[in-house]
Amino acid sequence: MSKLVVFSFLGGDLNQGFPVVTAQLWHQNQFVPVKLTGSLPAVPELSELYRRWQLLYAAVHQHFGSNQRIKVHSQDITNISVNDFDQVCQQLQANINAWLKFDSFQNIERQLRTLLSRDDEIRVIIETDIVLLHRLPWRLWNFFEDYPKAELALSNHEYASPQVLQKSPTGKVKILAILGNRVGIDIDKDRSLLQGLTDAETTFLVEPTRQKLDEYLWNQDWDILFFAGHSASLADGEIGEICINQTETLTILQFKNALKAAITRGLKLAIFNSCDGICLARNLADLNISQMIVMREGVPDFIAQEFLKNFLIAFAGNKPFYLAVREARERLQGLENEFPCASWLPVIYQNPTTVPTTWQELCGNFDDTKFVGEVPTKGKISTSKSQLRTVLVSTFIVAISTIGLRYLGVFEKIELQTFDQILRLRPKEDPDPRLIIIEITEKDIQSRQETTLGLKSISDSTLATLLKQLQKYQPRIIGLDIYRDFADPPNKLNPIQVSTELSKDNVVAVCKSRDSKYDPQGVKPPKEVPVERQGFTDAIQDPDGIMRRQILMMAQEPSSTCTTPYSLSLQLAARYLSSENIQPKFNEDSVQFGSKIFNRLKPGRSGGYQQGVNLGGNQILVNYRNTDFIRVSLEDILSNKVNADLLKDKVVIIGVTANTVSDTWSTPYSTGQQDYQEISGVFIQAQMVSQVLSAVLDQRPILWVLPYWGDILWICGWSVVGSLIVWRVPSLSDKGCAIFVTVVILYGVCAIALLKQGLWLPFIPSTFAVVASGVVIVLIQRRQKFFTIPQPLVE
Question: Which of 320, 328, 434, 645 could disulfide-link to 310, CB 3.0 to 4.6 Å?
Fold first, then answer.
């Protein structure tokens, strides 16, 4: 069975140690990997030992007189013996194994060994950005002795899936072979080995110019890029260059665009049969090529040719890529009497998001059954169609899970808070000129010595005087937001005078519904006011204490002393609009004024309300005005200090704002203020009346929500959008940016919909679906690239 182990060295270096080392074990039957964590101590002596080994390696090969594909700097060479070099080799191997026996890292190795079998085909990837770690001969680790089908590959820490265009199979492996500067070396053998491949079509560029190389990479499709010639490392090992002819050298960056185009057109494997290829591989890996083979140090001609020969025989003979490299590398050991450390040189660089290619796949023969470990598979895996199917299935699962979490009320609190936050983005609005609030302040109550009247706040005498005075200003409608469920004590004022004022047709009084669970008594309306001019003031707070909804209508309990089915706000708005020849139509699920329909929130679940919220009666969302209302004090009215035009033909609401009366409420704007402030109930009533009048007369948006199935489609749609974007974006960092941008766009759409159209869209569940879908797709892509997914054989 094929397995993959990825070691990630995060932070630190050999001088400081690695506080975090992770190992991820992937195999075909797992959706997510087994993840193990450990650490490694500082080993500064390993850096010095490897540097000494490099110098001695160059000196030994110069001593043997072997032709190498890199120039040897004589100033770095000292007089040494072969025995000295052997001792350093043994010390290097001992130091590497001693370092990897550190307790915390041994815990990783022990657990891996319990999960791995000796017969497993194991790909081991060392993931790091530290050049020296890439140069270390990891094959000396005893682990590779115990697992004969394990082979090492290196990888940079950041990588992404290559974006490859589909191309028609030709039945041949297309190889672009660059035979560069040959001064002092023999590369004709490389040419003859490539020419001997029967299933390949090889194009040779012999000491090409930069322009010619660029044209060939841009204009044709290649499966393998091969280079033989001189190469070197620059800038302290950060940049690699190849000598394409006797006068020109190129770094990877200098023909990056052409290489990217070739990778997009199907280039899957690069072989640099030249010296010191670590930096070349690191630079080319940034372009997300699938895999490479390079030589970690200077390589003699004969060793380069022998490795190429043995690798091509194994790989073209349909051996798996990693096993072909291991076999070709190990066969070099028999030549180490003349070429010390030859088997240390070849190394694979692998993009962890891709599956190692096979010779049959490069030929385009996808119909033949191939075996990955013990599992037979059919055809080319991870095609765009199969990937898209996987994306859609995973997206569906994420969307359904998100909808389930929303159904359980997981997102309710933060959805309500986001609703408030978007409402607060609205710019300051002008006061509604149709409404005037007569406020009874603490000063009014104290100055008139009426505090003994309790909830009534002002006496019948004062109320009668107020109503009589208001009628002189000719308001269109007067709403009395003060409970009047009992009369003054005897000897105060003849009640008939109060009755006379309350009996006027433009006065609407309030009562409070009886509720057997929450308010078993309720509050009676004034007996002088018929039920047609009564309105209830029942209000409902959300679980966080904020009032976001108003009740337009509701059926009363049979025993309730408050029998009106209409709220005070609806009564005031309806009477005002009736004088504008706009008559209301009352339906079971809506209230309609002209063309404007106020649809109720559906009982049970509606919009962000999903769990445990009472949506009984005919409830709608309150579209608060971001403004204050015109207010006049009781004393100003009684003293006749108000301009008559201010109140004429207006909706006048009388209410108590004194702080001794507990009638204050939180709104979505309360939390946005520097000092959390609640507002008096009379202002809440004014907001409710204003939103009806503004919607009908000013075309101000009515807040509404999608039906339940609409929310489901919206969440599923954004889940799909998030999945497809992440699926198509190449690098991991770009995927993160894409998710962030998608969420920002989603927020903008939700804000515009709410502020301009009044539509409350499910932003929080959609955001969760976008992010969760993106994360799942990243995991799936990594798994799909790591392993072949078995498909049933067709008989």
Answer: 328
Helical spans, DSSP H, in 377-532: 384-407, 412-423, 442-447, 460-472, 495-502
* Chain center to CA of 314: 44
Q: What is the mean pLDDT of each run of 10 residues along the chain (795 residues)?
A: 89 92 83 88 94 90 62 49 86 95 93 93 94 93 94 93 80 94 90 91 95 94 95 82 94 93 94 93 93 94 94 93 96 93 95 91 62 35 62 89 92 94 92 93 74 60 89 93 68 60 91 76 86 91 90 88 93 95 92 94 87 83 92 90 90 88 84 77 94 94 93 94 86 87 95 94 95 89 55 33
* Order of all β-strands in the sheet with 596-599: 584-586, 590-593, 596-599
Tell me the pairing of strands 231-234 and 239-243.
antiparallel
* Nearest to 273, CA basis, from 250, 300, 291: 300
Answer positive or negative: Cα dihedral of 271, 276, 278, 279: negative
Q: Residues 536, 539, 540, 546: what is their CA dihedral angle, to the nearest 10 degrees?
A: 160
User: Smallest Cα–Cα separation from 284: which of 255, 307, 325?
Assistant: 255
- The three-state DSSP-derived secondary structure of 171-224 is CCEEEEEEECCCCCCCCHHHHHHHHCCCCEEEEEEECCCHHHHHHHHHHCCCCE
**Cα distance between residue 367 and residue 579, in whole Å:** 81
Q: State the DSSP string of 720-770.
A: HHHHHHHHH--BHHHHHHHHHHHHHHHHHHHHHIIIII-EE--HHHHHHHH
User: Do residues 451 and 459 make contact, with C-beta atoms less than 8 angstroms apart?
Assistant: no
322 phi/psi in degrees, rounded to 5: -65, -40
- 181 neighbors 227 (Cβ within 8 angstroms): no
How far apart (Å, rounded) are the C-alpha atoms in residues 35 and 355?
Answer: 20
DSSP label at residue 613: -
- Phi, psi dihedrals of residue 537, rounded to the nearest 5°: -120, 20
Report whether 447 contacts 650 (CB < 8 A): no
Could you please report the per-residue DSSP string of 337-357?
A: TTSTTGGGSEEEEE-TTSPPP
- H or E element, residue 631: strand 630-633
**Counts for the chain of helices (H) and strands (E), in that order:** 24, 31
- Beta strand 375-377 pairing with 370-372: antiparallel
Compute CA 293 distance to the chain's CA centroid, rounded to the nearest angstrom: 35
Q: Say how far apart CA 333 and CA 303 lie, in whole Å.
A: 10
CA dihedral 86→91→96→99, nearest 10 degrees, is 170
Residue 155, Cβ neighbours under 10 Å: how many? 25
DSSP H/E element including 456: none
pLDDT in tens, 588-609: 889 999 999 999 998 878 889 9
Handedness of CA 749, 751, 752, 758 (dihedral sign): positive
- Dihedral over alpha carbons 593, 597, 600, 602 (to 10 degrees): 160
Edge-first strand listing for the sheet containing 477-481: 534-536, 507-511, 477-481, 651-656, 435-440, 630-633
Terminal-to-terminal C-alpha distance of the chain: 23
- How many CB atoms sit inside 10 A of residue 548's CB? 25
Residue 63 contacts by C-beta under 8 Å, 6 or more apart in sequence?
A: 82
Cα–Cα distance measured from residue 438 to residue 460, given in angstroms and rounded to the nearest whole number: 16
Could you give the CA distance from residue 366 to residue 382 in angstroms, rounded to a whole number? 12
Residue 477 and residue 651: Cα distance in Å, rounded?
A: 5
Q: What angle do the packed helices 44-64 and 82-99 form, to 10 degrees? A: 150
State the DSSP code for 145. Answer: H
